[in-house]
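Entry 14. Ran structure prediction on the chain below.
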Amino acid sequence: MGSNPAQINGKHLKELLKKFKEERDRIEEETGVRPQIDDTTQMFMQKILNVWIDEGKEIDEEKFWLEVDYNRQFSHPVEYYEKSH
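Output, structure tokens:
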């Protein structure tokens, strides 16, 4: 069973997003203003969500996007975003 090349690895995406976060932290520190999340970052976030959902995880999207503003999600495991039943 070959892996689909179109299916981007969630862990790889998370590493890229971690770099975005660090960059945004740096800009905020220098300017005092948190930069807006750009479309590219938002696209990556959406891909991560899709990967998790493909893996059968039930993600609470509202909770996920709420965390995105300050990129706090990098200190949480995926489970944090799963819907509590």
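The chain has a mean pLDDT of 78. Will compare against last week's run tomorrow.
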